[in-house]
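Researcher: I'm preparing a figure for a lab meeting and need a structural model of a single chain. I don't have an experimental structure, so a prediction will have to do for now. The sequence is pasted below. Please return the structure as C-alpha cells so I can convert it later.
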Amino acid sequence: VSGELVFLARDVPSFAAKRFTVTAGPAFANEESAVANGAVLENGRVRVRADEKTGGIIELTAKGLDGNFVDTAGGESLNDYLYLPGDDLSNLKRNGPVTIRVGEKGPLVASLIIESEAPGCKLLRREIRLVAGMDHVELINLVDKARLQARDYHAKDGKESVNFAFPLNVPDGEMLLDIPFGVMHPETDQIPGSCKNWFTVGRWLDVSNRDRGVTWVTLDAPLVEIGGI
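Model: Understood. Here is the structure written out cell by cell.
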C-alpha cells in the first residue's frame, strides 16, 4: 500500500531501546530477499509451502538442514484448523476450501493471506509471513468466532473447541515447555495425578534432537494439547 514504511530493527537489546533515523536512499539493501509466489514463501533461509486446498503448511524447510519439519503422515499440516463440537473426536471438523493470495510482496516482507469458511466461525483468516534474512516464520490467525447455539451449555453438545494443529517432524525430539521461572518436560516432570489434558506455556515450546529442532512461540494462546486433541 502506498505510504507504508517497513524496516527491520536489528540488535535491539532486551529491556532497552534503539533509535533509528529515516533518510533518503534505496528502498531495500540486502542480498537476501523475501519472495511470495503462488502458495510458496521463501527468503533464502526458510521455505514454506501451503496446501492449496486446506491452507495448512505442508512444507517447512531450512537452509543447511535436511528434511521437512512438517509431519504430514497423518494427513495434517502446520497451522491446520480443527474444530471440535462436544467431545467426540469422530466429529472433528476442518475448514472449507481456501483462497490464497499474496499479501506483502517483498523484498523485505513477504506474506500469504489464506481465507476460508470454517465451522464455528464467520470467517477464518490466516497469514503466513517471512522477513528477509530471518530464520523464523510468523503466523497470524484471525478467527471471527460465531456464537455456539445450544439449548443447554452444560451438556456435551453445548461445548466446543477451536484448535490449530502443529505436527512437527523432529525424530526422537525432546520437548520442553516454558513455564514461570523454569522449563519442564511434559509427562516426565509432572507429579502423579497431574492434569495432562492441557498444558499452559509462558511463551514457547521447543522440540529438538541433537541435530535439529523447532522453537514454537505463542503470544496470544498459551494453552496446548500434546500428542493430539
